[in-house]
């Protein structure tokens, strides 16, 4: 934003805009989407539908564009000759600051931003080159950055001249498709730091509207050019767009903006432009900024279910919904949507059960409103499998667990204990369903063939039930697993369609089997003769129950040598075999189990990383937040033992903090809602201070004896959390 002394410098800007507008009265229809629409003009036309189907997430390339998008490239008009360099500009700035005479700087800014042609003349690296490819925008980024960095330190009249020039450019009468020079100008104008100030939002809105209304082919260029912007500038543009949306939704001073009914196109335009930057961010690995930097937490405070229902009912018609652009919705907001959608499904199914019972003149039973799971501790997996298989129709009801032969009502503790015990047993190496990889500290599906994959379906259903019932699971799957789980996000109607198959790369394999992936990477970079030195074919070997089995990666693969020319194909087929083909039946069962519980269009809103956070929680720990939200039983937060405890915990290393969280809650991850959602409680234990702390993971409760000093508390706590394997159930 502007400096403190310049906050009100555009206070008379509406009058200034009106003056400019009056000078342009002869230009076309006022309601044209490419004209600057002044706030006091009535019946401003809404922005046409701009949203691509959320299911079509892949950005088109120029080669695959439909014929109607391949408009002939209009000839670029000749540009004025401008010779000022970065050093010339910096010298002018220094002279102006020293002398107080800003004439030279004023002339530069007013000339440069007076039209799109002038913007290109100033900032194009070579005015004689067309720069009409996606690889190079032709923009002198360093010069643009220097000019914008200096702009906010210039007098008000200089800054106003820039805005006046931008208005002139936006008011230009367009008579055909945009040239690449026009797109360059749009790309440069988006980086203008003046648009952080709400006084400029009317102009900013019209700039965004014009960019949003460009053709798909033009958007394609802007996406590829935007990914070349530096991380700092890229983040600034994204933050500016998010702030624009937030302040239009909840203005601090409503009188600063036109009435919402007259500018309904502001938010759709900004969101569409933001989607271009999201697409650019997704094209680079690693991305320029985190996907979470596109979240707009302001949306957590709007009626999300109305947005969701609009999206469900109207899809991608003319009715705008933020759900058409799920990247902008935070994981907390998505969790709310999924939970409420789940609750509505639960209520609907429970109501139908009640109606069926009454229609048969049977006495209603409250148990029919829940998914009641009764299991024996000694037969935990088999009983759970039988229960879930028998009660497929009830999977979307609220879960209640009963352990046979044990008294007690399930108020949430028994459900969590059931998940903890079941997950621990299923993922035990002796069970053989999953292989634990020590290097990556994660589990992966065993490729052993068997006659029945129902237990994999059980694990999928467990994950679905955990999401459905807001339980965080202590599961370690690699990110690739969640990518496969959303392939596709909606179960296909065709039962013969492949599920759980996604594009996989060597990076995915690195996250599971880093040593093998490193070996394949070495093969790709090997400078010698691959065929003679490695003597490999398109055939791989796997051990299954002590027997070595061979598999061809392609037809007659055992007869095709791996060479320098085909090694890329070999590596890709090998990775696909390990992560897709060899475990297809296991993962398909797992996929169907998860979606038998979580089948919802809300899954279309999620990224794979977000599914992982919903299932397993976030790895980001904030122990200060945990301290603020902790409840006490038998202690006060001012008691000496509690003060000792937090002094010790806040001083722990990250590894010890994770061990403490795992000790007390059964997982070292944090729920989507943050530490407050853990409902963590510290209770006073009346046992001897010689005893170690005790945890009830089902209730996220830590029982702490009143240790006499900080040293003793630290010693006993570290011993307890470092030797906490197993449950005291006997």
UniProtKB/TrEMBL annotation:
<dbReference type="InterPro" id="IPR035983">
    <property type="entry name" value="Hect_E3_ubiquitin_ligase"/>
</dbReference>
<feature type="domain" description="HECT">
    <location>
        <begin position="391"/>
        <end position="730"/>
    </location>
</feature>
<keyword id="KW-0597">Phosphoprotein</keyword>
<dbReference type="GO" id="GO:0000209">
    <property type="term" value="P:protein polyubiquitination"/>
</dbReference>
<dbReference type="GO" id="GO:0016874">
    <property type="term" value="F:ligase activity"/>
</dbReference>
<comment type="pathway">
    <text>Protein modification; protein ubiquitination.</text>
</comment>
<dbReference type="GO" id="GO:0061630">
    <property type="term" value="F:ubiquitin protein ligase activity"/>
</dbReference>
<dbReference type="InterPro" id="IPR044611">
    <property type="entry name" value="E3A/B/C-like"/>
</dbReference>
<protein>
    <recommendedName>
        <fullName>Probable E3 ubiquitin-protein ligase HECTD2</fullName>
        <ecNumber>2.3.2.26</ecNumber>
    </recommendedName>
</protein>
<keyword id="KW-0436">Ligase</keyword>
<comment type="function">
    <text>E3 ubiquitin-protein ligase which accepts ubiquitin from an E2 ubiquitin-conjugating enzyme in the form of a thioester and then directly transfers the ubiquitin to targeted substrates.</text>
</comment>
<dbReference type="InterPro" id="IPR000569">
    <property type="entry name" value="HECT_dom"/>
</dbReference>
<keyword id="KW-0833">Ubl conjugation pathway</keyword>
<keyword id="KW-0808">Transferase</keyword>
<dbReference type="Pfam" id="PF00632">
    <property type="entry name" value="HECT"/>
</dbReference>
<feature type="active site" description="Glycyl thioester intermediate">
    <location>
        <position position="698"/>
    </location>
</feature>
């Amino acid at each position: 934003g502007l400096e403190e002394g310049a906050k009100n410098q555009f206070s008379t800007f509406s009058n200034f805009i009106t003056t400019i507008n009056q000078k342009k009265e002869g230009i076309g229809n006022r309601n044209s989407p490419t004209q600057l629409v002044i706030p006091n003009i009535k019946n401003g036309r809404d922005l046409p539908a701009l949203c691509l189907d959320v299911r079509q997430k892949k950005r088109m390339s120029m080669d695959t564009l439909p014929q109607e998008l391949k408009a002939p490239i209009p000839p670029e008009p000749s540009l004025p000759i401008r010779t000022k360099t970065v050093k010339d500009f910096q010298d002018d700035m220094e002279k102006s600051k020293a002398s107080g005479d800003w004439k030279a700087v004023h002339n530069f800014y007013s000339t440069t931003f007076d039209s799109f042609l002038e913007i290109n003349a100033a900032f194009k690296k070579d005015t004689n080159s067309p720069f009409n490819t996606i690889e190079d925008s032709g923009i002198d980024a360093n010069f643009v950055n220097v000019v914008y960095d200096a702009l906010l330190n210039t007098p008000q009249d200089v800054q106003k001249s820039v805005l006046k020039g931008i208005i002139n450019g936006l008011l230009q009468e367009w008579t055909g498709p945009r040239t690449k020079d026009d797109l360059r100008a749009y790309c440069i104008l988006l980086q203008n730091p003046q648009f952080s100030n709400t006084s400029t939002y009317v102009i900013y809105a019209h700039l965004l509207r014009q960019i949003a209304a460009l053709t798909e082919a033009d958007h394609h260029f802007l996406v590829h050019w935007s990914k070349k912007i530096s991380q700092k500038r890229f983040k600034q543009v994204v933050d500016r767009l998010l702030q624009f949306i937030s302040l239009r939704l909840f203005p601090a001073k409503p009188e600063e903006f036109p009435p919402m009914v007259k500018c309904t196109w502001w938010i759709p335009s900004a969101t569409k432009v933001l989607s271009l930057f999201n697409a650019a961010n997704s094209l680079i690995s690693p991305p320029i900024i985190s996907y979470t930097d596109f979240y707009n937490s302001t949306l957590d405070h709007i009626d999300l279910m109305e947005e969701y229902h609009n999206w469900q009912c109207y899809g991608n018609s003319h009715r705008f919904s933020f759900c058409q652009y799920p990247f902008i919705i935070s994981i907390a907001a998505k969790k709310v949507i999924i939970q409420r959608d789940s609750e509505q499904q639960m209520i609907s199914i429970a109501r139908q059960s009640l109606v069926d019972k009454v229609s048969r003149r049977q006495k209603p039973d409250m148990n029919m409103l829940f998914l009641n799971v009764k299991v024996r501790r000694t037969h935990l997996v088999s009983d759970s499998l039988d229960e879930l298989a028998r009660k497929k129709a009830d999977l979307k009801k609220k879960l209640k667990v009963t352990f046979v032969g044990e008294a007690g009502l399930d108020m949430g503790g028994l459900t969590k204990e059931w998940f903890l015990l079941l997950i621990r047993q299923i993922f035990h190496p002796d069970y053989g369903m999953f292989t634990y990889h020590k290097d990556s500290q994660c589990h992966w599906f065993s490729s052993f063939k068997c006659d029945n994959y129902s237990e994999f379906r059980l694990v999928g259903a467990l994950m679905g039930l955990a999401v459905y019932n807001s339980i965080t699971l202590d599961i370690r799957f690699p990110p690739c697993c969640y990518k496969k789980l959303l392939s596709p996000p909606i179960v296909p109607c065709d039962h013969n369609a492949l599920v759980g198959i996604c594009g996989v790369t060597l990076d995915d394999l690195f996250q599971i089997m880093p040593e093998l992936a490193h070996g394949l990477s070495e093969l790709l970079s090997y400078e010698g003769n691959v065929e003679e030195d490695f003597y490999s074919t398109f055939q791989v070997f796997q051990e299954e129950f002590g027997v070595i089995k061979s598999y061809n990666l392609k037809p007659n693969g055992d007869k095709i040598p791996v060479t320098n020319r085909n090694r890329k194909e070999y590596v890709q087929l090998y990775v696909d075999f390990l992560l897709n083909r060899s475990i297809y039946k296991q993962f398909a069962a797992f996929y169907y189990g998860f979606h038998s519980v979580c089948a919802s269009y809300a899954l279309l809103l999620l990224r794979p990383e977000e599914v992982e956070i919903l299932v397993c929680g976030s790895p980001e720990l904030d122990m200060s937040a945990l301290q603020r939200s902790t409840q006490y039983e038998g202690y006060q937060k001012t008691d000496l033992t509690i003060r000792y405890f937090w002094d010790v915990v806040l001083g722990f290393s990250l590894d010890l903090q994770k061990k403490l969280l795992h000790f007390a809650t059964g997982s070292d991850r944090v729920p989507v809602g943050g530490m407050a959602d853990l409902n963590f409680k510290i209770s006073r234990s009346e046992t001897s201070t010689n005893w170690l702390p005790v945890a009830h993971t089902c209730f996220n409760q830590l029982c702490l004896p009143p240790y006499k000093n900080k040293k003793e508390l630290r010693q006993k706590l570290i011993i307890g959390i470092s030797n906490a394997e197993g449950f005291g159930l006997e």
